[in-house]
Write a structure and sequence with these properties.
CATH superfamily of the largest domain: Histidine kinase-like ATPase, C-terminal domain
Strand content: 5-15%
Order of helices and strands: HHHHHEHHEEHEEHEEH
Shape: elongated
Enzyme class: transferase
Main location: membrane
Oligomer: single chain
CATH architecture of the largest domain: 2-Layer Sandwich
Organism: Intestinibacter bartlettii
CATH topology of the largest domain: Heat Shock Protein 90
InterPro entries: HATPase_C_sf (IPR036890), HATPase_dom (IPR003594), His_kinase_dom (IPR005467), HisK_dim/P_dom (IPR003661), HisK_dim/P_sf (IPR036097), HssS/ArlS-like (IPR050398), Sig_transdc_His_kin-like_C (IPR004358)
Strand order of the largest sheet: 2-4-5-7-6
Membrane topology: Multi-pass membrane protein
Number of helices: 10
CATH class of the largest domain: Alpha Beta
Helix content: 55-70%
Largest sheet: 5 strands, mixed
Structural class: alpha+beta
Amino acid sequence: MKNKKAFYYAILPIAYFIFSLILVSVVFGVLKIVLDIYYRYNSQYGGTVVDAIKFFMLFRAQTGLDRNLNYLIIAICTFVTYFLFMRKTFVSLAKIVEATNQMAAGDLDKVIDIDCKGDTKILGDNINIISRLLKDVTVQERKAQQTKADLITNVSHDLRTPLTSIKGYLGLINEDKYRDEVQLRYYVDIAYQKSKELEVLINDLFELTKVQNNSITLDKIEIDLVELLNQIIFQFGYQFQSEKIKERSFFSEDKLIICADPNKLVRVFQNLINNGIKYGTGEFLDIYAYKKGSYAVVDVVSYGNPIPSVELPYIFDKFYRVEKSRNKNDGGSGLGLAITKSIVTLHGGIINAQSDGEKTIFKVMLPLLDKKIKNENKNS
């Protein structure tokens, strides 16, 4: 196929040139015959055409060119005709060369406008597509670099904060700057709590990196989502009681069977329930589970202290902080929702958030286990 294309491109200009030569020769021969006949029958009358023919014959006789002049005229006309045939191709190639030079210089917004058909048109269009894809890759790379810089900045800040506290209180202990054992224990407790914050941040960073780099392995099994949610809610019993929050469950009677990694999903719903406890100011936290099309849907609803609408598109970003009125000194890493979204995405699911003046809803949609697959698993 490649050899045929190469032969085609090599022979095409020659074919056009031969065609131009034949066309000019035929036209020249016919025109010569017509003018000879015209001169033979109209030489005695004169006129502009007859005078021109006489001048040409006299010029040819005096210069001695004769046939050579004919060949010269045919050659010139052949080159002119060949250029007219190939003009659009030549102009298009010149445009492509000029445009690619500009693209190579960094102008990826340059678009090649080709006014011809065939392979030259295809070449120009393909270069435009490559340029557009390269531009998109460049934009994404710049975003990635900016994200990396922001990540380093945020990590440095979040690591420095607990480290500063730990260093400060341990320094006071080291210098014996405490009144009694009670104050000593107080300093030790603060340093311990700050070290736990540091541990949470580091663990979350490792987990987020694994999830986003697809280097994490999902151990998927068949799970009854309602049973999993009941187990998680039971584990939060003490926190609900201490925060004086009443949990209300509204679960569908449908069997919500999914294929997922239970340990990873536990992390998802623990994060969402923790958020509801930390940031909700109402007396209730509601959890809904129901079927919607081919998805199992879980809504975690907290009341009061809404998320501003302008913040909603960014709450799943790494280290993104919602306005200060929602941020408590809770020892969070700022990565919980980013990890949650990554885990849900790995399971082929969707997560989003809605918030108004009354409540905030985190909605998780996970694909239900296909009945055909389920039956095959049973049969095997």
